[in-house]
Design brief:
Elements lengths: L1 H24 L2 E6 L3 H15 L3 E6 L1 H9 L6 E5 H9 L9 E13 L10 H10 L3 E4 L5 H5 L7 H5 L2 E4 L2 H10 L4 E5 H4 L5 E6 L7 E8 L6 H12 L4 H6 L8
Helix pairs in contact: 2-10
């Protein structure tokens, strides 16, 4: 019995000695929007070096990730659209005072690689292009949908309904364009540029352009708060600006 107690004490002391180091080396769990995937994939090695920790990252639409967080899923850092981060913060699902704006992205149009790029430089040209298209697609749960629908001012909503294909996520929408089952996609520029088989035509004209902002927030129950703050600081730093630009995004306007 004495040996058992001694063994138990040794085990506990060993655990206490090891656990802080283990926790310090544990990966930082990130839940992120598809809209920032290309940027995060590119910057991941630099981010890990900057915070001295590995990152485990899961991507999805901001709305889907929001539902997961609201359902109680554990995470250290969320990188989602700013409005979703705000909603989660109000619900106590993002730690107070940890919201950090990091980027914004406009909406663009993409077509299949090899296809002729239509004219979308002006609002009139965009209207003609959309009316002449055989089909368009966008994500029904994507961050850009609300802004796409605001293009009702073009006066072609009814004409477009029959040839609009809604998909779950921009990945599926891009795949439709790549395989030819949809002629063009409307979504964030940052989601078009990395899509295989799809080429960017360009951003929407300024008069109908809308920007989706992205922010970082830290989980209220995270055991990696310091690492989360360091990650937020990294993504908010000027050093990421060239990568943002290359991936179709930009620093948030002050």
């Amino acid at each position: 019995m004495a040996m058992t107690k001694r063994s138990l004490v040794v085990a506990v002391l060993t655990f206490l000695a090891i656990y802080p180091a283990a926790a310090q080396n544990a990966p930082v769990h990130v839940l992120a929007s598809n809209g920032v995937k290309a940027v995060i994939d590119e910057l991941k090695p630099q981010a890990e070096k900057a915070i001295g920790r590995r990152l485990t990252i899961e991507f999805g639409t901001s709305s889907v990730v929001k539902t997961r967080i609201e359902g109680g899923e554990a995470f250290d850092v969320a990188i989602l659209t700013s409005d979703v981060i705000e909603d989660l913060a109000k619900a106590g699902k993002i730690a107070a005072g940890t919201r950090t704006e990091i980027a914004r992205c406009g909406i663009g149009i993409g077509v299949r690689v090899g296809a002729a790029k239509p004219d979308i430089k002006t609002v009139d040209a965009l209207k003609k292009t959309l009316l002449a298209s055989k089909s368009i697609t966008y994500a029904q749960d994507g961050a850009s949908r609300a802004y796409i629908l605001q293009m009702d001012k073009l006066g072609i909503t009814d004409a477009m309904k029959a040839k609009t294909i809604l998909e779950k996520g921009s990945v599926a929408s891009n795949a439709r364009v790549a395989d030819g089952s949809a002629e063009m996609i409307l979504t964030l520029v940052s989601e078009i540029l990395p899509a295989p088989g799809v080429q960017l035509v360009g951003p929407l004209p300024a008069d109908v352009q809308h920007y989706v902002s992205f922010a970082v927030g830290i989980g209220p129950n995270s055991k990696n708060t310091d690492a989360g703050k360091a990650l937020s600081k990294f993504f908010a730093s000027p050093a990421v600006a060239p990568t943002l630009k290359a991936k179709g995004m930009e620093k948030p306007k002050v």
